[in-house]
């Protein structure tokens, strides 16, 4: 079937773009009539150098008819919709009339007998062309003496009374008619193409009213329209097609293949889309529970139930009433914030609540909420999605970072059937959610906790001693501020020292005299008290050996939640680490660990592989050190992490095999960065300004690059910006150009992923300038892989700015610089071939990229997938070119090849990068695009929603991708018949796009290309 689009005079409007017109025809009509050939024609008169006359319309009509005869290639069985019938009796055109099966008119004047018809024609022409009534073009038409000819053509056409269905859309809203009088432009309103003047008088015609004015009606409706015009138009078109073409003819070709559920890790690579879709689409059993999820699911790692937990019954009850109301009233998703000072027992209460009421929840999950990397790690332990129609409890523990609200939003469950418990020191969360600010324990509960922890045995004492001990217990808990952590620490000391409560009370009074002014003051929400945890911890610390104290001081600059013993042991084996005489052998390390555990200043994980330190203990340890000792231990911590951090070789910088170990070490680097920045703010830098510690900058860079590679993009700048500032501050000391170049390269790479095209180019230029200085300073020598990356990244920056010719030149220079160097060139060759693709050099791009694809099943890294993604895009463009040339069958075959290629890429990326990586989401979008083209709407919906879920996990970084995916989802919803929902998504996408595009460059989107243009070239 052929579809012929005959545009009106709006194609001469200054804002009209022919490419947008064609894009609309391809994107919209291809889903309604997938096997139709779409033909579009354009007027080219009305320019300043040409005279304008009604006969020119006739000449264009004849040109149209001759083109139809030629482009139908002798096929007489294709009906034509939208064809303009001017030549009823012309034998050469007779087959067009005979094969026409329907017409849809948009704002067309069909009745020449209406009063003032000539003036109405001129007004319509002026509105459609965006000019005023006194314009030269309109005056030429007004003075044309061929009005009789025009009316005769229209009369003959009405007399034709075709046997095929005709739909006529006419306007209900008035149009603004502009004119110029005395150099002043005036406007008046008039309804131009009304029902009366639109009628043909045919038996087969149906008139359809539209709430549009003439200018709006004569242009194809946009998907983003919020007045239901798009829905009305598509409904009218679909009904016309279905009336003349059997539905069976319209069905797209289906896909065959396995639908079995497969594991990503054990999947045999294939190009069958069903195999891939099954990886991302959960089955739908009756209970709406995804397969493979173990229910009940109870994850509170690393916490077990505390057998010594006492008190807090009122708080536990209040939490449960809020999170699990008996009457079931209130919002489906319930949130309770538990706030208070560190050491108040928030985490222990949340764990106790989880264990006490676990029978009420099918799923209980505890997430560490004090940073993106930890939340990401916690969520990797959970089910990939929480969208389960069963009761669940999620605990966000220690939501204390400055960006906690953003982190909570980022990891907030999208479903509403469960309960959420948050622990934090920030009391403002109580106002944001429901909850309570946790205060000190009650006196009876605190005393009960203390005597329980010290195993107080009344029966072993006489009555007088019992009374003395009970009084001492009350005084001890009071001095500790009824703080659970302080009570627990004191109890351990009492047991270790084998002293009575009364003796401890006396000793404690003496020791508090050594308290200095640099203390951590614990301010009670109710009233102040002068005693602090430092008093207790001083007693603990002073019982440690010198080696044990040294280990504590070192650990005070690492992440306190997970201090891996393996990291300490591996550090001992590195010859460049000479700071650790106190743990110079595994035996000494074991002895130190045992002493620290006995002191209770640190705890140990259940599996014995990690140590943990309370944040207040960590702060206390730092406060014990003067500035020189702090700087010495901070430098030791840098050396330790530098020694154990796995650094990929430069030519293999994209190395997912190292990610697991790097992920474990990342929190330590983040802590080093945090401590250094705060120390500078306080005027006591942990690295003296007169020194240049390039290892510190290097560690920050390596961690930032890992965050970039693994998809933790929101953490990249938190590491690289301080690293850049450090390098710039110390460049004059020598030796920092190469590492500064690396940092600029990392920042530029982040800018490419976040679609900040100019910033990416600027950062890559800075990288290249630093590299040239590094060569001049003999920090690097040629040939060097750093030169390859510097040149290639400038190419990336240029390509992001659509400066493709320059980008291609830099890519070729980068590949020339690689001569004689080891490594896999796929990344830069793929980027260059993408550049060739975007320039339309399809044959060269295809030949070049195919040459580097040696094994299509290579999932050891993402390089092969990157090359194949480029190949798939080239195959799509070749398919579209073939279709435009009329070679429909060959084009469809090429498009199927492209889908098979992109489906394979999705499998490769899923294995190499994981389902939640943004590059995997990019290819999910592409496969969803293919499925949409094939009208496999449900599969496309699942795939696009999965991509959107990945992007939404970091909304600031992937705002552009979110806008593009929402637009595509909106188009998909509309094509599935959900016009209201689809239109809302498209308008939301357009709102986001308007925030992204510079005001001077923004104009309403005409189709997918407008959204493709706002994402990076490798995302398209």
Automatic annotation (TrEMBL):
Top-rank taxon: Eukaryota
SUPFAM superfamilies: P-loop containing nucleoside triphosphate hydrolases (SSF52540), TPR-like (SSF48452)
Gene3D superfamilies membership: P-loop containing nucleotide triphosphate hydrolases, Tetratricopeptide repeat domain
InterPro entries registered for this protein in UniProt: DUF7779 (IPR056681), P-loop_NTPase (IPR027417), TPR-like_helical_dom_sf (IPR011990), TPR_rpt (IPR019734)
Organism of derivation: Clonostachys chloroleuca
Official protein name in the record: DUF7779 domain-containing protein
Database matches in Pfam families: DUF7779
Domain DUF7779: 539-629
């Amino acid at each position: 079937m052929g579809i012929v689009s005959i545009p009106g005079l709006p194609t001469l409007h200054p804002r009209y773009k022919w490419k947008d017109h064609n894009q609309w025809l391809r994107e919209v009509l291809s889903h309604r009539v997938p096997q139709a050939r779409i033909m579009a024609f354009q007027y080219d008169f009305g320019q300043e150098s040409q005279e304008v006359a009604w006969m020119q319309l006739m000449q264009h009509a004849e040109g149209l008819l001759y083109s139809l005869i030629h482009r139908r290639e002798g096929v007489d069985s294709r009906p034509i919709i939208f064809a303009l019938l001017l030549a009823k009796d012309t034998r050469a055109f007779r087959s067009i009339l005979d094969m026409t099966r329907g017409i849809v008119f948009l704002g067309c004047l069909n009745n020449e007998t209406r009063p003032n018809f000539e003036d109405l024609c001129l007004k319509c022409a002026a509105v459609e062309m965006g000019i005023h009534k006194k314009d030269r073009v309109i005056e030429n038409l007004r003075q044309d003496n061929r009005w009789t000819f025009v009316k005769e053509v229209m009369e003959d056409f009405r007399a034709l009374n075709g046997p095929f269905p005709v739909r006529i859309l006419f306007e209900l809203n008035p149009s603004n008619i502009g004119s110029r009088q005395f150099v002043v432009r005036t406007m008046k309103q008039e309804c131009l193409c009304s029902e009366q003047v639109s009628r043909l008088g045919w038996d087969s015609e149906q008139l359809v009213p539209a709430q549009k004015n003439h200018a709006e009606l004569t242009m194809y409706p946009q998907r983003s329209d919020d007045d239901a015009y798009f829905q009305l138009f598509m409904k009218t078109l679909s009904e016309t097609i279905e009336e003349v073409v059997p539905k069976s003819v319209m069905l797209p070709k289906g896909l065959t293949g396995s639908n079995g559920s497969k594991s990503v890790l054990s999947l045999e690579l294939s190009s069958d889309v069903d195999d891939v879709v099954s990886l991302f689409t959960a089955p739908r059993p009756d209970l709406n529970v995804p397969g493979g999820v173990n229910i009940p699911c109870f994850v509170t790692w690393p916490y077990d139930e505390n057998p010594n937990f006492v008190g807090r019954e009122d708080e536990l009850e209040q939490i449960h009433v809020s999170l699990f109301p008996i009457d079931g009233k209130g919002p489906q998703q319930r949130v309770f914030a538990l706030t208070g000072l560190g050491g108040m027992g928030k985490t222990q209460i949340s764990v106790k609540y989880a264990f006490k009421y676990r029978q009420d929840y099918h799923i209980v999950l505890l997430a560490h909420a004090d940073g993106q990397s930890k939340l990401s790690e916690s969520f990797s332990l959970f089910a990939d999605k929480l969208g389960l129609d069963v009761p669940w409890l999620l605990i966000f523990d220690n939501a204390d970072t400055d960006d906690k609200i953003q982190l909570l939003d980022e990891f907030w469950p999208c479903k509403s059937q469960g309960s959420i418990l948050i622990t934090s020191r920030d009391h403002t969360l109580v106002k944001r959610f429901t909850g309570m600010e946790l205060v000190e324990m009650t006196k009876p509960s605190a005393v009960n906790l203390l005597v329980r922890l010290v195993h107080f045995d009344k029966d072993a004492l006489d009555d007088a001693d019992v009374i003395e001990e009970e009084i001492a217990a009350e005084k001890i808990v009071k001095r500790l501020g009824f703080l659970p952590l302080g009570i627990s620490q004191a109890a351990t000391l009492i047991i270790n020292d084998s002293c009575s409560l009364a003796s401890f009370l006396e000793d404690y009074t003496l020791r508090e005299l050594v308290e200095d002014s640099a203390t951590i003051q614990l301010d009670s929400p109710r009233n102040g008290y002068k005693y602090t945890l430092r008093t207790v911890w001083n007693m603990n610390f002073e019982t440690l050996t010198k080696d044990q104290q040294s280990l504590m001081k070192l650990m005070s600059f690492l992440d306190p939640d997970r201090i891996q013993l393996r990291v300490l042991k591996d550090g001992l084996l590195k010859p460049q680490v000479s700071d650790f005489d106190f743990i110079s052998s595994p035996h000494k390390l074991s002895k130190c660990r045992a002493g620290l555990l006995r002191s209770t200043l640190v705890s140990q994980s259940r599996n014995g592989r990690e140590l943990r330190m309370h944040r207040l203990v960590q702060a206390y340890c730092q406060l014990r050190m003067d500035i020189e000792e702090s700087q010495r231990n901070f430098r030791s911590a840098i050396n330790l992490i530098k020694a154990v951090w796995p650094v990929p070789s430069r030519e293999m910088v994209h190395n997912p095999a190292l990610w697991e170990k790097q992920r474990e070490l990342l929190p330590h680097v983040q802590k080093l960065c945090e401590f250094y920045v705060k120390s500078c703010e306080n005027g006591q830098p942990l690295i003296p300004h007169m020194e240049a510690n390039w290892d510190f900058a290097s560690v920050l860079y390596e961690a930032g690059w890992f965050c970039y590679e693994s998809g933790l993009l929101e953490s990249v700048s938190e590491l690289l910006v301080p690293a850049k500032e450090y390098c710039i501050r110390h460049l004059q000391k020598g030796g920092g150009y190469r590492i500064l170049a690396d940092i600029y390269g990392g920042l530029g790479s982040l800018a490419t992923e976040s679609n900040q095209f100019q910033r990416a180019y600027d950062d890559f230029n800075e990288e290249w300038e630093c590299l040239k200085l590094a060569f001049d300073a003999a920090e690097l020598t040629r040939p060097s892989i750093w030169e390859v990356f510097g040149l290639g990244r400038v190419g990336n920056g240029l390509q992001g700015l659509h400066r493709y010719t320059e980008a291609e030149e830099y890519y070729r220079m980068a590949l020339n610089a690689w001569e004689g160097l080891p490594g896999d060139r796929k990344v830069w060759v793929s980027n260059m071939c993408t550049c060739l693709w975007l320039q339309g050099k399809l044959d060269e791009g295809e030949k070049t990229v195919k040459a580097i694809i040696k094994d299509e099943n290579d999932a050891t890294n993402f390089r092969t997938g990157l090359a194949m993604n480029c190949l798939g895009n080239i195959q799509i463009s070749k398919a579209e070119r073939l279709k435009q040339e009329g070679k429909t069958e060959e084009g469809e075959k090429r498009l199927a090849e492209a889908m098979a290629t992109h489906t394979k890429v999705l499998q490769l990326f899923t294995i190499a990068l994981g389902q939640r990586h943004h590059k995997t989401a990019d290819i999910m979008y592409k496969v969803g695009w293919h499925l949409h083209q094939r009208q496999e709407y449900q599969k496309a919906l699942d795939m696009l929603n999965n991509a959107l879920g990945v992007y939404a996990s970091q909304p600031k970084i992937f705002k552009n991708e979110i806008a593009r995916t929402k637009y595509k989802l909106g188009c998909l919803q509309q094509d599935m018949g959900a016009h209201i929902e689809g239109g809302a998504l498209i308008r939301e996408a357009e709102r986001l796009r308007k925030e992204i595009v510079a005001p001077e460059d923004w104009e309403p989107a005409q189709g997918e290309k407008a959204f493709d243009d706002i994402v990076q070239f490798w995302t398209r």
